[in-house]
Amino acid sequence: MGRGPELDAFAAALTDGECRGFVVGGPAGVGKSRLGEECLGRAAGKGLRVGRAAASAAAGAVPLGAIAHLLPAGVDLSDPVAGFAAVARGLAAEPGRQWVLFVDDMHLLDASSAVLLRQLMDTGALLLIGTVRTGEPYGDAVAALRGGDSVYRVDLTVLSPQQVDALLQAALGRPVARRTLHELSAASGGNVLYLRELVLGALATGNLTEDGEIWHLVDERLPGTARLTEMISTRLAAADPAGRPVLELLALCEPLSLTYAEALAPPQVIAALEQAGLIRVAQDRRRTTVSLAHPLYGEVLRAGLPLLRRRALLLDQAARVQARGARRRGDLLHIATWQLAATGTADPTLLAQAAVLARHAHDLPQTVALLKALPEEHRTTATDLRLGEALFELGRWQQAEATLAEADALAVDDQDKLAVALVRTTSLLWSNAPVAEALAVNDAARAQLSSPADRRKLTINEGFLRVVGGRPSEGLALLEDLETDVGDAPDLNAWLRGAWMKPAALALVGRTAEATTWARRAHDAHRRVQEHALAAHPAFQRIPLVLALTEAGAPAAEICRVGEPAYAELTAAGSRVRIWLAVLLGRAHWLAGHPVTARRWWAEAATVSRGIDHAMALRPVLGGLAACAAVLGDLDAAEATLAEHRALPPVEPGLLSAGEEFLGEAWLLAARGHLRRACSALVGAAATARGTGHVTGEALLLTDVARLGGAEQVTGRLTALARSCDGELAPARVQLVTALAVDDPERLLRAADACQAVGADLLAAEASTTAAAAWRRVGRPRPASAAAHRAATAGARCEGARTPLLAVAQVTAVLTTREREIALLAAGGNTSQDIARSLTLSVRTVDNHLQHAYTKLGVTTRRELAQTFGTSSPGARPHRPL
Fold first, then answer.
1. For 645-685, what is each residue's pLDDT tens digit?
2. Torsion angle in degrees (nearest 10) through CA of 56, 57, 62, 65
3. What are phi and psi of 535, to 5 degrees?
4. Where are the alpha helices (DSSP H) in 537-634?
5. pTM strictly above 0.90
6. Burial class (CB in 10 A: 0-12, 13-18, 19+), 846
7. Is residue 394 within 8 Å of residue 406, measured between CB atoms?
């Protein structure tokens, strides 16, 4: 990633006649040396004389050791005053051509070198570029180089996750999955040098790979490189040996109370470790904690610990905490974890208690590790249930089902059977099992319960299952009487389950105001009671809220403010069910007309879905990815994605309409000019959505039919759907479709306003563009120009989207409907024979219409026609027909 502002500052320094130095400060590994080299390159590019010197501890022990190679030959330095003056005269031998020297690690310079360089700076013979490491000691002579009004100073800091993301995308050429970004940011601590070595190590081992859309870690390992290990080992080796035990214990048990650290080393040693930047000391109320200054220090320290030394450190620390009463909330979890790591086992009661704490902290891998360590004779329904739930959330479906089946066998009363049924049915459903299988487990459990109240809990669960299984109306009927407050619910877990999916069902049938209220209520309740709930992360409650806000017509920015923090929480927890937030965030951006952003979210969802074989999400995601690629003109990528989609085994619709998964097929057809076939595919998909009760999904698909030329065909049905939907999105769609059907420019502009009000940038651009074309056809250039300007403003927010409506309206206002259709097909690379076969016309008729289009548009070849439409060249490789 470039350092634009810092380089601009250096450029200003070069032009400032009073400037004598440019110093770059910051911690190790933030790119100080790289920036210094770039500055030196800028100076050389301006014709200045340049030189380099690298200060070091060894060179610093010898007077002028770091810069001896730069001194003029024959200068006598026995008299420093005369000698330094001679050096200045020698270096100024080329009048008018300034000398620029780059000194790396300037804080290590010896005093003589620093004094000489300062004198050269003061005479104007030298402009110094230097780097210094934050926190390192230096003498007065070096301090003189660093300070003063004539020295520019910039300080670099570690990279934020957003900067790491930008840097990785620039270096790798594609986006990086958010879980991978989380791992790389956390492991590197934002240190550029460490980040580079981690990426190189992951690439070398094949653990960092890309799937054509996004880079991701295969198993979240970050091996780094030998160079990285050497750098960190060298830094750690410089510490006082008396502090080594503290560093080793922190590598295994951080963070530690300062009291425990001082049990291993005196306070002055710990203070020295902090001064050297190896540990971080923080104050939290009355408690002082110590941790390693960088995550990778722990990796290197652990790798170098012999097994018995590791065991002794862990067991000794567990004993210390137990001796102090294990009073803090996390102490039991820590003791169990340390004992388990040291010996492979721990007290069973302690393991079970620690697992509860780990689950409450949403540490899923740790929960699984603790519960799997339980001896067989200590397993209970409760422990198996908690283990199965954690496995389910990690996407380990088969292990989850096996564990939950065992929990069911251990169940001894109705409450146990009920609790197992709630978790087991959910796991089955998300694992691609038929909805009927999950419903059968639910029915079997309900038949075994005698209490009407308990049976109602499983009725609520059935409603949840039917919504997730793609039947929102059926599920909503079972959830209509769900208590509005968790405090009134007879069972916490059943209520949370119902409250999770009720707002999703409400959103899918168009009741978006109720959906939004319910989703916010469920999330707030889940946060309050999560400690007592055997239910997924509270951030899951944001999934239906994102859906509800989208269908209500909230702008994408507002939706992201809700969805992105929740996705980050689930990513940090390792939950794979975060897929659905990525699916819905991608969908929100698709509806907004932001195909690049939608493509990234859907690529994220696809990566996670493939890793856990979650076809329920993967089918609509691949369809969305193909649609994004098609409207961005990346037809090869769209076709490759659809090939993967076609190879998937069929599954039931799932949370989103099965119809929406065919968006990719339709938009690829449209991108190739086959508008009638695209409309036919969308009409069929809308019928599927209608059959499953997905009102808003059907409306989405019918709107796309209108955008591809079928407005008259769908106006009636879309108007009827809008009557059952609240929010602003449905009316905006109806305005657009009815305006397209009558081709009325004034109505189109009103539709553009309505679409813009709900953040549908691409729909607004299409409506304005079509209005401009309509005004041009009736000879009204002024309103046409104004509409075109509005279209350009909206289109600038659409990330390069290219749709047939935009292309056709912009350049074919003078063509007849048939001429536009044939010209668009020809621009997409189809031969006259292909077009004739597709439209059931003769080749001669096709050629006649095409010739008329050529004449009206002022082109003479198909290549010029393709350029006019902004589509792929007819000379491009032909694609397999769909």
1. 999 987 777 777 779 999 999 999 999 889 999 999 999 99
2. 0
3. -150, 165
4. 542-552, 556-573, 579-592, 595-612, 615-631
5. no
6. buried
7. no
